[in-house]
Amino acid sequence: QMNTVSLSESLLVDVGESLVSPQTASNADRLGPVTVSREFHVKPGHEAQFEAAIQRLVDVSIQQPGHLGVTVIRPAAGATAYRFVYRYDTQEHLRDWHESDLRAELMEEVS
Questions:
Q1: Among 47, 55, 78, 90, which one is least packed by beta carbons within 10 Å?
Q2: Which one is predicted more confidently, 102 or 2?
Q3: Helix axes 47-61 and 101-110, enclosed angle (nearest 10)
Q4: Dist CA 3 CA 11 (whole Å)
Q5: In this structure, are residues 82 and 73 in contact, taking their beta carbons and an 8 Å threshold?
């Protein structure tokens, strides 16, 4: 476990051309796709370890049911924030992934 990362996350549901939080979307479970934006702040000197761990997480996550894609935005020079934006076709598929033991194991490596 790295203990070198701080994390913030927001969950959004696509409604037409807009992204809204599931709490404000009516019938959110029936809506899709769902977009998650996560930001990781990595302590200097731990970037290579973080990159390897996150690559394993991405490699497994893209194989999950309903996964629609992931974008990794690496920090600018001198910054520490990595942003991950990923999408699932339904909140149910996203929830299944987020609650899986496999994801929990992989997140231990990342954080």
A1: 78
A2: 102
A3: 160
A4: 23
A5: yes
The structure tokens 């701080």 sit at 6
Which of left, alpha, beta for 27 (phi over 0: left; psi -120 to 50: alpha)?
A: left
Handedness of CA 18, 79, 49, 101 (dihedral sign): negative
Nearest CA-CA partner of 83 in 4, 2, 7: 7
For tokens 């203990």, the residue is 3
What pLDDT is recorded for position 61? 94
Given a cut of 50, whether residue 89 has pLDDT beyond it is yes
Written as one letter, the residue type at 42 is V
* pLDDT at 31 (0 to 100): 61
